[in-house]
Amino acid sequence: MTWLAGGVGAAGGAPLRFLGDQWGTERTARPGGAGVFPWGLLAVNVSGSAVAGVVVALATGDLRGLLLVGLCGAYTTFSGYAWETTRLWPQARAAFWASVVVMPAACVAAFLLAWRFAGLAAS
Hints:
By secondary structure, this protein is mainly α. It has one domain (2-122). It is 84% helix and 0% strand. It contains five helices and no strands. The protein has helices spanning 2-28, 39-58, 61-75, 78-88, 93-122. The radius of gyration is 16 Å and the shape is globular.
């Protein structure tokens, strides 16, 4: 049943990722769009990491499969991160390096903070 819960969660997470990334990208795009930092993707990945931290702290069983594996797994995206970061290399080296450092650090920090605070709130 966990695989079904993961699939149902993914069916919601993927469209949310697309919409969130598009929303953030449209609001931060510069004229020409080349070399711009992937702010929409950063927002999606950081918010998804924070939700994952809460889920790990509070959910178990099929609910964890639905929310963590399905929803958060489809909402956050490593492939999008890899593509966006690689796209920056020939156009904007500073943005490339900022993406390499900032996105993983921000995601890990968001996960750990949310996990810690959710765990404290639950106890």
